[in-house]
Amino acid sequence: MQSFPQFDESWKNWLDENIRRGCSHQSMIDAMVANAFDPNTAHSILSRRIAGEEVDAAAVSSSASYVYGKQMLPQGPVIKANDCRARVLFSSSQPVVALLGDVLTEEECERLIEIGRQSVKQSAVVDPASGAEIIIRERTSQGAFVNGSVDPLVAKIDRRLAELTNIPLENGEDLHLLRYGIGGEYRPHFDYFPEELAGSRHHLQRGGQRIATVILYLNEVELGGETTFPNVGLSVRPQRGSALYFEYGNELGQVDPKTLHAGNPVEQGEKWIATKWIRRSRFQPLPQDA
Known about the structure:
Elements: H1 9-21, H2 25-34, H3 39-50, E1 78-81, E2 84-93, E3 96-101, H4 106-119, E4 121-122, E5 125-126, E6 133-134, E7 142-146, H5 152-165, E8 175-180, E9 186-189, H6 201-204, E10 210-217, E11 223-224, E12 227-229, E13 234-236, E14 243-247, E15 261-263, E16 266-268, E17 271-279
Antiparallel strand pairs: 1-2, 2-3, 3-14, 4-7, 5-6, 7-8, 8-17, 9-15, 10-14, 10-17, 11-16, 12-13, 12-15
Helix pairs in contact: 2-3
């Protein structure tokens, strides 16, 4: 049975001091997770301390266990779309993770990289307190959101991913192209929005919680760049044309902390991916995104 650390006076003082110093919220959460706090619990404690609320040590415990129900991803050794037959290279049920082969062709990968080279800029993340996009040292990549207005291929891939995942097309956010150079990484994080944090509110209004992610690998990385899930000891090496799928939202509205994941530093070459985040409901782009 898993045990959880006690949120005692030393932890309270440590959090309050780091909040006062202006440390990034993610760095504080990372430190708590590294010391065996449940990730959801760490998010909740931090948000309450930022709000000036007292946190009762006796009340700090693991979040309710995530309930694994019926998977959204179709089952079987091959998953079909109108223009694609994706081979299931491996899958796991807790957490729900699958690597699909032959999702993109060589030519499609090359075209997406070409589009990316013309449009990427320094990647940002959502600040958990304000909801604004900020630059942090934990994420060292260049990225750009693209849709069908940029190139017909993007619209074609959007339709393909909707068919493969069996999730409505309109629930997907715009495709996010990302480049990682030497040393580029994204430290352990969740793709879902912590609902207890104020910064998540206006993002949740644009289609509800994120419930699944698809990472498309556009090139082979010479060394490094693996996608890892540290809570379950899983590491996935980029394979050109393949797609890594994982889901983390169930019908009860829970989110799965086992989907904590990271992009390992690129040691040689560069890494190109395209990420599709999927919402529970229809995604509403901002006016400038449309």
